[in-house]
C-alpha cells in the first residue's frame, strides 16, 4: 500500500511524506494496516498519521496542528466532491487506530478531544463556505479545547470514584507498585536518558548542577524509597469518612462532620521524577483525581512512570483517567483557567513558579515555595550537637528544600563552638560565605581554605543555594536571630541548637515557619519522616494545610444531617417562643458516620 499516493501533493517535504510508509514497513503492525485497508487511507487520516509517527518530536502544538490539518483537509476534500462530509464521531476508524498507534501517551488526554473534533458536524454543500466553528479557531483556542478535555476527564474520574471503597484503593496502590517493579528497567533507562540530556545542559551552563542530582532515580535508595512510599501510603488509615464533629440537635436528628476528598488536583513540580509516584499514591488513597506536570528535564522518566501507573489503574476499580500527566507549559496555562473542573492547584518549586501560578489562576493554590531554612546556634549550644545538626542540615541532601541555607551564630560562640562547626563543614567541602565577624574568627582556618571561605554579600542571606554553600551570619541575641529568620526565610523549617529550654520555647513560638525544631536537623521536615507515608509537598501558606502535606492535607469535610423521625424535621419547629423546640446540641461519641 503506497501511502504517499494519498498525501496532498506539495504539502510536506518528500522525506516527511515517506515516514508513514517507513513506519509500516518497520513495524508491520497488522492492526494498523488492517484498519487502513478496511476503512481506506483518507487524506485527512494520512495527515494525522504523519504527525504521529514523529514520536520523538511529538508535543501538544504538533498534535493540535495535526488535528487542525486533519479537519481542514476533510473540509477541502469534501468540497471538491461537492457533498456533505461524514460525521466521524467515537465510531470513527481513526480513533481506534490513534489509540493503537500512540497508546497511553495520547489516550488519557488527546483521544476525547480528537473524538469531539471528528464528531463536529459540518455542512459543506455550499462550496463558498471556507470556515467553520472549528477551522476558524486559533492555536490558543485549540489549546483550551484540549485542556478542557483533560480537566473534564479528571473531574468525571473523581466523581465516578466516590463509591470506590478504601480496600479497592489500597488494591490499586499495590497494583501500581507491582507495575513499577515490572517496568523498572525501562523506567531507569528513560531516567538515564534524562540525566544525559541534563548533564549536557549543565556543561553548557543552561542548567544548575543541583537539578541533575534531583533527577537521578537510581542513586542511593531513591528507587526503593519511592516503592516503599507507595506501601506506606497504602497502609495508612483511610482519611475519608472520619467524623470530626458529631452532635445530637434534637431527638432523632443527628449532625456529623465527615472528612471527604477535595476533588480534582493539578500538581506542578520541577525535576524530581519520583514525585509522579508520590502524588499519584496520595491522590488515590485520599480519593482525589490528579493531573500532574513535571519538569521538562524529567520528561522521559515521568512518561514511563505514568505508563506504569496507567497500566495498573486499567486493572483496578478506578477510572483510567484518574491520574493523568501533561508535558507542556501550554497545557498548564490552559488548565489554570479550568476552575469549573479543577479544585486545587499545588505547585512545587521556586518562589517564582508559585507566584506565577498564583497570579495566573482563579483556582485555590496551595503553595510550596523555596526552602530557605536556617539553623541558629544559641549561646548555650552544645558543641557536639551544633556540629552534628549543622552538618546534617547542610550536606545530607543539599538539593532538598529542607536543607539549611543559612547558619546564624551567636556572638558568644565565635571563638568556641563556631570554629569547630566551620571545620566540620569545610571537611565536607561546604563553601562558607561569612559576614565580617564570623570570617575574622576563623583566622588560620580561613587562610588554609581560601577557595571555600569567602566574604558574604547581602543577597546570600535570601538565596536557596541547593548546593554545598552556606551563608553564615553573626547575631547578638536570640531576638536578632528570630528577627532575621522571619524577615529573610521562606517560612519553611528552622532549627535552634540550645541547652536553654526557655530559649527553645521562645524560638519555636516566635519563628513564623511551618516547622520549628530544637536540637534537630532541618532535614527531618519531610512527610515520610513524619509518618505521612509520603507528601504531596510542603506548604508554606497559612490556610488549610501547612508544612509537609500528606493525606490529611488532601481532605476537607462535609456535613451530614439525618432525621430518623417519622415526620422528618423542619426548622419552623425550633425557636424561643411558646411551643417551640430547643436545640439539644449534645455530643455523640463516635468516630464514624452511621450512614
Q: What do these coordinates show?
A:
The structure is a single chain. The chain is α/β, with parallel strands linked by helices. The protein folds into 3 domains: 3-137, no CATH class; 163-241 and 260-358, Aldehyde Dehydrogenase, Chain A, domain 1; 373-530, Aldehyde Dehydrogenase, Chain A, domain 2. The chain is built from 24 helices and 17 strands. A 7-stranded parallel beta sheet has the order 10-9-11-8-7-12-13, sandwiched between helices. Helix 3 runs antiparallel to helix 6 (94-102). The longest helix is centred in the first third of the chain and has 22 residues, at 60-81. The protein is globular. The relative contact order is 0.10. The model is unreliable at 1-60, 77-109 and 115-136 (pLDDT under 50). It catalyses: L-glutamate 5-semialdehyde + phosphate + NADP(+) = L-glutamyl 5-phosphate + NADPH + H(+). It is a multi-pass membrane protein. Its EC number is 1.2.1.41.
Can you summarize this structure?
It is a multi-pass membrane protein. The chain has 24 helices and 17 strands. It has 595 residues and is α/β, with parallel strands linked by helices.
CATH topology of the largest domain: Aldehyde Dehydrogenase, Chain A, domain 1
**Can you name the CATH architecture of the largest domain?**
3-Layer(aba) Sandwich
Distance between the termini: 63 Å
- Looking at CATH, the homologous superfamily of the largest domain is Aldehyde Dehydrogenase, Chain A, domain 1
Compute the gyration radius: what is it? 29 Å
What is the tally of helical segments? 24
How large is the share of residues in beta strands?
5-15%
In the predicted model, the low-confidence regions spanning at least 5 consecutive residues are 1-60, 77-109, 115-136
The best one-word shape is globular
**What's the helical proportion of residues?**
40-55%
Mean pLDDT: 81
Q: What summary fits the major beta sheet?
A: 7 strands, parallel
Strand order of the largest sheet: 10-9-11-8-7-12-13
CATH C-level of the largest domain: Alpha Beta
Give the structural class.
alpha/beta
- Counting structural domains, the number is 3
**Number of E strands:** 17
Enzyme class: oxidoreductase
Keywords: Amino-acid biosynthesis, Membrane, NADP, Oxidoreductase, Proline biosynthesis, Transmembrane, Transmembrane helix
Catalytic activity: L-glutamate 5-semialdehyde + phosphate + NADP(+) = L-glutamyl 5-phosphate + NADPH + H(+)
Pathway: Amino-acid biosynthesis; L-proline biosynthesis; L-glutamate 5-semialdehyde from L-glutamate: step 2/2
Amino acid at each position: 500500500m503506497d501511502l504517499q499516493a494519498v498525501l496532498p501533493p506539495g504539502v510536506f517535504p518528500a522525506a516527511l511524506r515517506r515516514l508513514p510508509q517507513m513506519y509500516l514497513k518497520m513495524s508491520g503492525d497488522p492492526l494498523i494496516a488492517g484498519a487502513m485497508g478496511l476503512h481506506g487511507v483518507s487524506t485527512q487520516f494520512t495527515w494525522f498519521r504523519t504527525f504521529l509517527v514523529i514520536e520523538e518530536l511529538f508535543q501538544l502544538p504538533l498534535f493540535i496542528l495535526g488535528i487542525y490539518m486533519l479537519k481542514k483537509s476533510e473540509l477541502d476534500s469534501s468540497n471538491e466532491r461537492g457533498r456533505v462530509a461524514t460525521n466521524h464521531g467515537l465510531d470513527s476508524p481513526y480513533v481506534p487506530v490513534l489509540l493503537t498507534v500512540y497508546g497511553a501517551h495520547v489516550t488519557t488526554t488527546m483521544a476525547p478531544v480528537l473524538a469531539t473534533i471528528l464528531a463536529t458536524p459540518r455542512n459543506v454543500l455550499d462550496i463558498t463556505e471556507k470556515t467553520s466553528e472549528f477551522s476558524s479557531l486559533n492555536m490558543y483556542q485549540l489549546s483550551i479545547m484540549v485542556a478542557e478535555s483533560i480537566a473534564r476527564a479528571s473531574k468525571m474520574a473523581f466523581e465516578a470514584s466516590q463509591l470506590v471503597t478504601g480496600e479497592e484503593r489500597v488494591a490499586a496502590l499495590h497494583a501500581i507498585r507491582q507495575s513499577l517493579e515490572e517496568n523498572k528497567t525501562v523506567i531507569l533507562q528513560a531516567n538515564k536518558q534524562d540525566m544525559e540530556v541534563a548533564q549536557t545542559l549543565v556543561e553548557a551552563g543552561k542548567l544548575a548542577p543541583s537539578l541533575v542530582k534531583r533527577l537521578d532515580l537510581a542513586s542511593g535508595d531513591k528507587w526503593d524509597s519511592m516503592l516503599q512510599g507507595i506501601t506506606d501510603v497504602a497502609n495508612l488509615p483511610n482519611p475519608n469518612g472520619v467524623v470530626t464533629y458529631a452532635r445530637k440537635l434534637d431527638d432523632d436528628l443527628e449532625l456529623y462532620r465527615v472528612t471527604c476528598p477535595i476533588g480534582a488536583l493539578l500538581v506542578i513540580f520541577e525535576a524530581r521524577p519520583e514525585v509522579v509516584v508520590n502524588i499519584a499514591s496520595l491522590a488515590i488513597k485520599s480519593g482525589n483525581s490528579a493531573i500532574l506536570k513535571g519538569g521538562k528535564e524529567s520528561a522521559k522518566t515521568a512518561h514511563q512512570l505514568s505508563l506504569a501507573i496507567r497500566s495498573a489503574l486499567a486493572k483496578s476499580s478506578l477510572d483510567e483517567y484518574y491520574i493523568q500527566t501533561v508535558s507542556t507549559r501550554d497545557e498548564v496555562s490552559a488548565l489554570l483557567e479550568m476552575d469549573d473542573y479543577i479544585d486545587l492547584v499545588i505547585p512545587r518549586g521556586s518562589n517564582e513558579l508559585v507566584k506565577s501560578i498564583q497570579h495566573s489562576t482563579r483556582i485555590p493554590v496551595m503553595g510550596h515555595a523555596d526552602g530557605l531554612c536556617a539553623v541558629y546556634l544559641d549561646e548555650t549550644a552544645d558543641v557536639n550537637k551544633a556540629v552534628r545538626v549543622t552538618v546534617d542540615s547542610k550536606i545530607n541532601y543539599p538539593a532538598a528544600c529542607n536543607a539549611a541555607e543559612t547558619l546564624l551564630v551567636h556572638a558568644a560562640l565565635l571563638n568556641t563552638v563556631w570554629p569547630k562547626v566551620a571545620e566540620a563543614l569545610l571537611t565536607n567541602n561546604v563553601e562558607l560565605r561569612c559576614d565580617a565577624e564570623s570570617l575574622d574568627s576563623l583566622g588560620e582556618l580561613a587562610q588554609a581554605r581560601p577557595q571555600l571561605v569567602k566574604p558574604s554579600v547581602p543577597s546570600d542571606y535570601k538565596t536557596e543555594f541547593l548546593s554545598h554553600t552556606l551563608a553564615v551570619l553573626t547575631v547578638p541575641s536570640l531576638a536578632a536571630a528570630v528577627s532575621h529568620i522571619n524577615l529573610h526565610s521562606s517560612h519553611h523549617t528552622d532549627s535552634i541548637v540550645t541547652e536553654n529550654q526557655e530559649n527553645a520555647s521562645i524560638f519555636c513560638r516566635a519563628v513564623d515557619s511551618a516547622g520549628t525544631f530544637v536540637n534537630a536537623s532541618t532535614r527531618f521536615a519531610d512527610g515520610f519522616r513524619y509518618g505521612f507515608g509520603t507528601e504531596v509537598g510542603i506548604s508554606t501558606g497559612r490556610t488549610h494545610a501547612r508544612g509537609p502535606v500528606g493525606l490529611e492535607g488532601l481532605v476537607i469535610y462535609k456535613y451530614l444531617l439525618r432525621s430518623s423521625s417519622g415526620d422528618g424535621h423542619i426548622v419552623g419547629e425550633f425557636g424561643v417562643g411558646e411551643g417551640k423546640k430547643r436545640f439539644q446540641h449534645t455530643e455523640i461519641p463516635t468516630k464514624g458516620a452511621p450512614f
